[in-house]
Amino acid sequence: MVWSRRVRVSCAALIVAGCGLAAANAGPDVVVWSINGTSYYGSSGGIDAYALGTTSCNRGDAPLAWFDGTVNHPVIAQNLYRLKDGRMEQVGMSWLKWAFASLNQNQCGTCINPPAGGSQLGINCSDPYGSGLNGSQGGLGARSLVNPFIGFHPPEHAQSSGPSTIRGRLQVPRSDMDPAQNVGAAYFGEAQYIAPDDALAGNDDNNSSVRRVWVNANHSLTFNEPGPAGNSSTLEGVTGIQNWQLLDPGVALKHTTMPSDGRVTIAWRAQANASVLSADFNSDGQTNITDLGIALQNFGIAGAAFEDGDANDDGFVNITDLGIVLQEFGQSNTFHYDFAVFNMNSDRAVQAVTVALPAGTTVSNVGFHDVDSHSGEPYSTTDWTDSSDPTFIRWETQTQAENVNANALRWGCMYNYWFDATCSPDQMTTITLDAFKQGAVNEQVVNLPNVFLNDFCGNAYKIFNPTIFFRTGGATTDGPDHPGVCDTGGITQTENDIWYRYNADGTGTVTVAIAADYDAKIAVYEGACGGAGGVFAGCDDDGGGSNPSVNFSVTNGEVYFIRIGGRNGETGGGEMSISGP
User: Fold this and answer.
1) Are 321 and 341 found together in one domain?
2) How many CB atoms lie within 10 A of CB 565?
3) What's the domain count of the chain?
4) Whose C-alpha in 55, 255, 384, 472 is 20 to 30 A from the C-alpha of 354?
5) What's the farthest any 2 CA atoms get from each other in the chain?
6) What residues make up the domain containing 232?
């Protein structure tokens, strides 16, 4: 049989922009309209077992096939993610619910009943599968039976194996769910539908949704946040890895496709490294907010309150802020990098991940995290190995020729990769994904998206030190143009900008000066970001040189935003010094 797919833009690219209200996609288009129930079955052998309820919706302009006992019906996957210490990890996965009938209800719109009744999901029609149904072991089949790129699965499936409490269900290591071992962690359930006619219509990149869950003391799950905040909501069309970016503006994300195959998503973040060796100021073997307080005092900011240490203004004082402070004072020469790769629907899967590094880079603190197959799936659970030299770092599992059941990054799964390096984020350029299943082209080289925590004014770094070390390579431009000022050669925009926040502790005149290794520009705004109500206070480009400076008046207690960028697309690094009042 020859399969082909329609190529089109999915509304999943809009994330939470209300894609369900847009024009219907051509052909059948099943989405997870709601994640709406949980079941907890207990534990066995250190593994907790769960199930999530799902309600699907057909956002397309044609009925979706739902013929029981054939290859033409959806299958339903469930995953669980944990956000802990800034890293989003997939901690659990289920087998697949073999869907068997559609009720064609009106929960997501006015249902147009399909010709085949319960053997189709009509246009704008919804269908509920409760958590008890999605956790019923007799209806669960293996993920290894499915080709997600074309939506194919056999009409029948074998039963799962293992302890009766957990087999086939959404399995999570009990230690990953223990509230005492995961203080401050947040959890998110994800559901994904795979259907052949949806895939063939090219509508299968919006088939996953996520919803936050909370873990009770007995390890059961709830959608009710403790306290008065109320219930969480389903984010339709949002995957777990996309949710990481929504929660952390420092995460950069990019979708790609494996050659002649399905979607894979890459996300990464960087932070100035505060390792035990460099930042354990009280020599207690830990690097934490105590060291941040000591660092602030060492750098002449005596008696700083905890809220004064919130360097990235995210409402938390933590080790990330310590890294930012050390970077500002030139005390950190390494960065910590977190990468995640999510296989949405690539049947070819991923066998290796390689991150290119600038020549001479030294790496350390290398790590890997995966999610284990279970219940009789044939796949290995052996962790990937890592290797590096001064120009790359690589993680890999066995090749298909070595082991057809190797622990490749298969569909519906996200793996994590992390390391420390002596290179800065703007020097990171590409990541290469090697396909597990071989074909005419077996590598996908992806240009890394920008990752700058203070790339946008809303994430401006608080200034602690009168001299700050910075780099702008890879930053985007989000500040306003300034015609008529600092426009040497007619170039009025401050491009590829990064942002800092200055809290005046006196009244008078402040001078901000740049010593850069490129054609730099600087602009200052009072009260708010430029373009967001901030009052323009000054701008300079040093007549096209590398040493711009701005003098501006400040009032004690007021906030000022400093924007560092370049002229005519130039980027680089340097020092910013602040004096006065």
Assistant:
1) no
2) 24
3) 4
4) 472
5) 79
6) 11-243
Q: What is the dihedral of CA 467, 470, 475, 477, to 10 degrees?
A: 20
Q: Do 323 and 353 belong together in one domain?
A: no
Residue 250 maps to a domain: no
Q: What is the CATH number of the domain that holds 472?
A: 2.60.120.380
Q: Which of 228, 243, 258 delimits the end of a domain?
A: 243
Please list, in sequence order, all residues whose beta carbon lies within 8 angstroms of the beta carbon of residue 415, skipping any fewer than 6 positions away: 90, 340, 341, 353, 368, 369, 370, 371, 384, 409
The mean pLDDT value for 547-568 works out to: 92
CB 85 within 8 A of CB 128: no
Cα–Cα dist 312/294, whole Å? 18
Q: What CATH number did the domain enclosing 300 receive? A: 1.10.1330
Distance in angstroms (rounded) separating the CA atoms of residues 458 and 435: 38
pLDDT at position 282 over 90: no
Question: How far is the C-alpha of 483 from the C-alpha of 480, rounded, in Å?
Answer: 10
307 and 164 in a common domain: no
DSSP state of 319: H
**Is position 398 within any domain?**
yes
- In a domain, residue 89? The reply is yes
- Which is more confident, 572 or 341? 341
- Per the document, the length of the chain is 581
Integer CA distances (angstroms), 313 to 253, 471, 496, 580, in order: 22, 20, 21, 24
Backbone torsions φ then ψ of 5, nearest 5 degrees: -130, 145
The pTM of the full predicted model, rounded to 2 decimals, is 0.77
Same domain membership, residue 116 and residue 70: yes
134 falls within a domain: yes
Same domain, 286 and 398: no
Helix and strand totals (H; E) in the chain: 7, 34
Give the model confidence (pLDDT) of 415-434 as tens digits. 999 999 988 777 788 999 99
- The answer to whether residues 226 and 307 belong to one domain is no
Supply 502's token pair.
């200055």
Tokens 């999610």, located at residue: 371
Amino acid (1-letter code) at residue 1: M
Among residues 347, 342, 409, the alpha carbon closest in space to that of 373 is found at 409
Q: Please indicate whether residue 304 or residue 285 has the higher confidence score (pLDDT).
A: 285
Convert the pLDDT of each residue in 77-119 to its tens digit: 999 999 998 899 999 999 999 999 999 999 999 999 999 999 9
Based on the fold, state whether residues 183 and 226 are members of the same structural domain. Answer: yes
- Segment 529-549 mean pLDDT: 85
Q: Where are the beta strands (DSSP E) in 134-207?
A: 140-141, 170-173, 186-194
Q: Which residue has the tokens 């990937």?
A: 384
* Residue at which a domain ends, from 447, 474, 501: 447
Are 473 and 564 contained in the same domain? yes
Residue 558 tokens, joined: 């007021």
**CB-CB contact of 436 with 399 (8 Å):** yes
The kind and range of the H/E element at 145 are none
Contact 437, 350 (CB under 8 A): no
Residue 546 sits at φ, ψ, to 5 deg, of -110, 10
